[in-house]
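Suppose you are handed only two things: the residues of a chain and a line of SMILES describing zinc ion. What would the bound structure be? This form records exactly that question and the answer produced for it, so the two can be stored side by side and reused later without any lookup.

QUESTION INPUTS
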Amino acid sequence: MKYFDGHNDVLLKFYFEKNKDSAKEFFNGNDFCHIDFPKILKSNFCGGFFAIFVPNEEPDDDFFKRMINEKYDFPLPNKIDQTYAKNATNEMISILNNIILQSNNKIKLCTSGKEINECILDNNIAIILHIEGAEAIDKDFKNLYELYNKGLRSIGLVWSRNNIFANGVPFSYPSSPDRGEGLTDLGKDLVKICDEKHILIDLSHLNQKGFYDVAKISKQPLMATHSNAHFITNHSRNLTDEQLTTIKNSQGIVGINFATAFLRRDGRMIPETSLDAIVEHCDHLLKFLGEDHVAIGSDYDGAVVPNEISDLSKIENLYKYFIGKGYSNTLTEKIFYKNWNNFLQKNLI
Ligand SMILES: [Zn+2]
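ANSWER OUTPUT
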């Protein structure tokens, strides 16, 4: 079974492990990443959005640990400096390019849905370059064009912190996603430029007001690469039924996130989490979006995930679980890769 993934943070792992040869660790395999080449071969992974996430300048080692608590409401981390963000982004792009260069044409940076489809048909691996938070982009959008020329085709306006474009949603449980103000005027301009240049806009990590600002301005179908159902897990990062309906009306797509804090009804970030939680979210998303608009955005290498799918090599366990729960092969294939492939062929042009 092929698998296309809406979100991973493996480039961040290599960015943190600066003393390691990232291409060597990637191709030989390692025990600090959820995704590496041997795990890709075991999983039939055919591609995905590779996120560039710029971490806080002060590292926060307790981030996941604080999400083990019964309730939590993180303050938004401080804004980050644009030059720092630009440098970190370019460093992660270099890591990715080096991996691609050493892949013997097995891995490709794709800038259109057509290229992605060809990659999948050829049994190669298609990568979409995504930034999770637009801090590397300056107010005159000069860096946007530079990044576009390097292959950037997907932008999350914010991670869960504020920047000059929008306000992020804090990590909070239990909580509504209606937290804070939406897009700034610059953020609205950025949305329009993304539409003109056919850059995808990711809604995951926007708060509710920001979500509806994008929905109002953008003409593209709405995309939340790695978000779950708020009805099941009352977490600020998840999507309400009204938001799901708005996505459905735009012919958009949602990728189910494996981060256990967004999957479990108790909002705790712990790996002892049954795959049933994924099925519950999936059932709910299917009810609102229909079977052509639900996909997966694992958050591998960026979250604590359920033990049974503890890294990419074990993704088949989820496929079998879906089948065991009565999902047809056809539906499971759609969720695993066909819906992303169709969405990207239509919208990444
Ligand atoms: Zn994320």
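WHAT STANDS OUT: The chain is about 40% helix and 15% strand. The domain at 3-347 is CATH 3.20.20.140 (TIM Barrel).
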